[in-house]
Structure formats: C-alpha cells, structure tokens
Amino acid sequence: MNPKPVLTLWYVTVEDPAAVLREEPKADRGFGRKFLAQLNPNLPVTPIGQFPLNRSAQAGDSEYYIGGYPGVTVVQTVIEEESMVLSRLPEQLLKAVPALEIYAFVSQESTGYAGFAHWTAGELKRCLCGTRFNLQEDSGLPEPFEAPFWAGEKYDPVGGISLPFEPQGITEAAQSYWLGVEVNDQGPDLDVVGYATDGRPEPKVAPKKPERSLGTIASASVSKLGFNDYDDYEAHDQEPESTGEEILETAKRLGGLIGSYVRQTSKSIRERWRS
Fold first, then answer.
1. pLDDT digits over 38-97, tens only?
2. Which of 95, 105, 141, 207 has the most CB atoms less than 10 A away?
3. Closest by alpha carbon to 120, among 134, 135, 101?
C-alpha cells in the first residue's frame, strides 16, 4: 500500500510573501491549535515538536505541520486519494484561513504523482495534477515558469504518451515561483509546529544533563588518585565556564599531580622490594 499523498497549503494575504519568509519568523503555537479547532473542535490535539518544515520529514497520518506568520500561513498534512486532484479539495480546507491567494501542492513520491493549484479570491486560476503518464487535470492558463517544462528543456524524453517533464519537478518550481523562495534545504527556515490528532501522548523530552566544569572533572580525578587534601579545583566549580587559560592551567596542575602520584608509587614499590 502506497503512503498517502502529502498536501501543502499556503494562505497568503501579503503582496510579497518572500519578504516575510526570508525573515524566518517563528511559528505561533496558539495559531495551530486554533486552526485545528476550526477544522474539527473534537480533534484530540497533541503538540509533537517545532522544527523547520523544509528540513524535516513530511507530515504523516493524523499529523499537521502548521506555521502561522504575519500575512502567510502554511499547513502540511496527508490527504485521501480522492482529494489528490486539487480542484476537488474540501471547501473546509480552502476557507480555513481568510486569504486572497491560496496555493496548494500535492506529492506522492511512491507513485510519481504531484500537482499544484492556485486560487485568487476563491476562484481557481490554475491546476495541474497527475503522473508523467497519466495527467488527471490541466485547467487554467499556464504560468510563465511552466514554459521550459512544456518545451522539454528540463527532462529527457521517456517515450510513449507521456509528459515532457516529471510532475514533481514542475510542482517544486511552482512553489518557488509563487512564494518567491526555495522551499527546500537551500531556502530559509520555515518554522512550523507539529500536531498529532490521533490521541497519541505528547513526546517526553529527557532533561538535559548539566555540563560538568573542568574543576569538577579535575577534582574527581584528584580524588581517585588519592590526593583528597587537594581542593584547589573545587572553587572553580562556581564559574559558568572555563577560559583557554584556565584549561591550560588545569591541565598543568593535573599533569603535575599525576606525575607526583607516579613518583610516589614507584618509590613505594622500590622500598618494598628492598625490604
């Protein structure tokens, strides 16, 4: 069974979304909860993390990745196959955020299916969906970025009745063209909050272990060597961090202690052999 298609929706109310996204704004956690409550107030919503959308794995079953920024909102989730033709997306999704421009992108890597769509003020302006060998929809006027794809300049021909390009490639080009930034690891961080809606518990994050200072490490080493009366390192534990000079000084002192310990041990062994 193929993984479900992944849908990414962009709701844009500003003239220049690229200017907003280049600032790498942080996602509003409260906005995501409100968005999901509007879709279905009975959904059990669990935050599962905060991360860059374009540097993470795609959303899975019962997951929503949501980023609410000034004038721009992004939502990524999975959809059922009957919604793969983007012109048939549920009205509930298209009206979830009031926006003049809405851009939708779908991808199912396992089948090669991909597509994009654009609405202005609720009117569908362009929609292209399908695989290279089975075009599901091609409506509206082509955009300028499409020209080299239709001209066969981007991909080698594969023969038979097929498109002169891979739908995934033209879909990625559409997203970059409309948003004005690369939506991949070469572009700005697109911060989102991940939510699960299947009732799973919130993931537990192990508390970070406190960092040990050089003084603590040295003191422990001295104790193991038997120099319990040497406590010069203990005062350094109160310092937040060690400088380069302190590191060198600590190394010298510890080295001297080890050398002294070796000399005393050797002397003790020689005296035992003599006796």
1. 999 999 999 999 999 999 999 999 999 999 999 999 999 999 887 899 999 999 999 999
2. 105
3. 101
- Asked whether 213 and 220 are in contact (CB, 8 A), the reply is no
Assess whether 71 and 138 both reside in one domain: yes
The verdict on 15 and 136 lying in the same domain is yes
Please give the full DSSP string across 139-168, using - where no structure is assigned: EEPPPGGGHHHHTT-SS----SS--SS-HH
Structural domain count of the chain = 2
Nearest alpha-carbon partner for 106 in 93, 95, 121, 120:
93
The Cα 132–Cα 50 span in angstroms is 35
Compute the distance between CA of residue 127 and CA of residue 88 in angstroms, rounded to an integer. 10
213, 215, 217, 223: CA torsion to nearest 10: -160
Which tokens sit at 119? Answer: 């609405």
**What's at 34, amino acid-wise?**
K
Q: Is pLDDT of 112 > 60?
A: yes
Q: Examine the domain organization and report whether 182 and 46 are in the same domain.
A: yes
* Host domain of residue 236: 214-274
Q: Residue 82: helix, strand or coil by DSSP?
A: helix
Q: Render pLDDT for 10-36 as a digit per residue (tens, 0 to 9).
A: 999 999 999 999 999 999 989 999 999
Is residue 1 in a domain? no
Distance, CA of 8 to CA of 137 (rounded, Å)? 18
User: Do 171 and 221 lie in a common domain?
Assistant: no
